[in-house]
C-alpha cells in the first residue's frame, strides 16, 4: 500500500534525522493518511496531494499535471506548496509530544433495538446490514461454545501493510462479532480459529482483495456447512455467518473495512461481503482432501485461509466453450495459462469435473498440478519486488466442492495461507 | 331493500374482522406499547498506545540546499520523480534537486540511501502514494 507506505517512510525519516520529509500522494488518500499520521505518531506530517493517476501517464503529462500543476484540494501550485511545507515553521500542534489520547466509546450502549441498530450503523460497527444486537446474554451463550477465557487475547490484526494500526482483540470481542453476524454457538470454534490467525477478511488494498477459507474434517457435517448445491453461494447459514463474523471481527476487532481510511478498494469486490467459505466435498471427491495434502490427518478439523481476487465461473474463458465432448484437464490448464501469477490460480471443481480429471489419468492432485503448471515454464514468473513490487509466484490450487447436477466449476486467483486446527478452539 | 341491508351489514362485519386481525399482529401491536430498552456490548478491539513524535524543524530557505527526490518503485513513480527533478530545478534554480531510486520494496527503508541522505540531504520528497 503505497500511500501509507511513503507516509510512514517520511515519518521515519523525519524522526531519525530531524530533516523535513514530504510524501507526495494522490488526493484520494487524504482521509486515510490523516489516520496514518496519528497511528504512526506524527499527525502533523506535511503531505503533498497531487492529481492522479500517475501510473500510465507520460513524462509530459506528469510535468503538466503535477510538476507545473496544482494541488487538486487547495488549487495552489504543487511546487510552491512543497517548498512551503519544507520551510514554513512548525505550529504548536506540530510540536506536540506525549501519548495520543483517544476514546473508542463506552463498554456498553443502551437503547431500543431500532436506536441501537442505527447507532451501530452510524459508528460503522456493521457491514451496512442489520445485525443481531450483542446483548450480554447472547454473547455469554456464544462464549459457552469454547473453553477459552473471554479475556484471552485472541489475535492481532491490521488492514494490511502500513495502512492502519495493528489492533488486538479478545475471545469476547470475537464472540460479540459472532453474535452480530447471526452465527450459532457451534460455529464459534471455527470463528476463533480464523481470528487466531490475525488475517483480515477485509484488506485495505485499492486492488480489492477478498478473503476465503477451505474447511476440511468432520466439523463440516457437525455444524451443517454446505458443500452440496450452492456450496460457494450465500444460501447456507453456517458458511454465510462464519464469513460474516470474520468480516465483523476484522471491522471492529482488527481496525479494518472503514471506507476511505482502512478500506480503499477502487471499484470494490462483492466477494468481501461474506467472504468465500468453502467446505470441501471430501465424500464425492476422487482426491485426498485439501487439508491432507497440506500435511494433516484425514478427518482432522482444519481451516485454511486464502486471499486473492476471488473466483469466477470457468465458463467465462474461451477455453471452456461448451461442446459435445470436453477435455477438462486441458481446459483447466488453458485457463491457468491465462492467469496472472500474483495470487496464483485456484480451481474450485465440482465432483463431476474432479472425476473427469481423475479419469483422464491424473490419480493425484500433485500429478495434475504438474501437468497444469509444468508446460507453462516459459510463462514469466513474477518475482516479489518486480513491476510495482508485486508478484507472489504462480501456484496452482485445487479444491472440490458443490453438487453433481452439472459439469460446472470456477477458477480464479486465490492463494492459500495459514492452515489451523479448529478443535483447540472448542 | 333487505338484500342491500344484508350486504352492507356483511361488509361492516368483514371490515371489523379485518381491523381486529390487523391490530392483533405482533408488529403492529408493538407500536402501541413501549419498546424495551436493551444494553449491548461495544464490539471494538483495542488499538495500541501511540507516542507522538516531534516533527523535524523546517529549513529557513531552500536556496543553496540539497533536496533528494526518492522513487519508491511504484509504477510511474520513476517518471514522476525524474520530471520533478527537472521541473523543480527550473522553478528553483538555486536549489539542488537529486533524483534517487530507493531499494527494499515500496514500503521498506533503504538504509544505504537513508545514510546518504543523512549526510547529504537537507530534505526529502518521496512520491508516490498512488
Task: Write the SSE topology.
The complex is a heterodimer of chains A (426) and B (130).
Chain A: H1 2-17, E1 21-26, H2 30-39, E2 48-50, H3 59-67, H4 78-87, E3 98-99, E4 108-111, H5 113-122, H6 136-143, E5 153-157, E6 167-170, H7 171-181, H8 188-197, E7 210-216, H9 219-222, H10 237-252, E8 276-279, H11 290-293, E9 302-313, H12 328-337, E10 345-349, H13 351-359, H14 365-374, E11 396-400, E12 409-421
Parallel strand pairs in A: 1-2, 7-8, 10-11
Antiparallel strand pairs in A: 5-6, 7-9, 9-12, 10-12
Helix pairs in contact in A: 1-2, 6-7, 7-8, 7-10, 8-10, 12-14
Chain B: H1 2-24, H2 26-32, E1 38-41, E2 51-52, E3 66-71, H3 77-91, E4 96-101, H4 111-120, E5 123-129
Parallel strand pairs in B: 3-4, 3-5
Please tell me about this protein's structure.
The complex is a heterodimer of chains A (426) and B (130). Chain A has 426 residues and is of the alpha/beta class. Chain A folds into two domains: 2-95, no CATH class; 113-425, no CATH class. Chain A has 14 helices and twelve strands. Chain A has helices at residues 2-17, 30-39, 59-67, 78-87, 113-122, 136-143, 171-181, 188-197, 219-222, 237-252, 290-293, 328-337, 351-359, 365-374; strands at residues 21-26, 48-50, 98-99, 108-111, 153-157, 167-170, 210-216, 276-279, 302-313, 345-349, 396-400, 409-421. In chain A, the strands form three sheets. Chain A has a six-stranded mixed β-sheet. A two-stranded parallel ribbon of chain A has the order 1-2. In chain A, strands 5-6 form a two-stranded antiparallel ribbon. In chain A, strand 1 (21-26), helix 2 (30-39) and strand 2 form a beta-alpha-beta unit. The model of chain A is unreliable at 376-392 (pLDDT under 50). With 130 residues, chain B is of the alpha/beta class. In chain B, 42% of the residues lie in helices and 19% in strands. Chain B contains four helices and five strands. Chain B has helices at residues 2-24, 26-32, 77-91, 111-120, and strands at 38-41, 51-52, 66-71, 96-101, 123-129. Chain B has a three-stranded parallel β-sheet, sandwiched between helices. Strand 1 of chain A pairs parallel with strand 5 (123-129) of chain B, so a sheet runs across the interface.
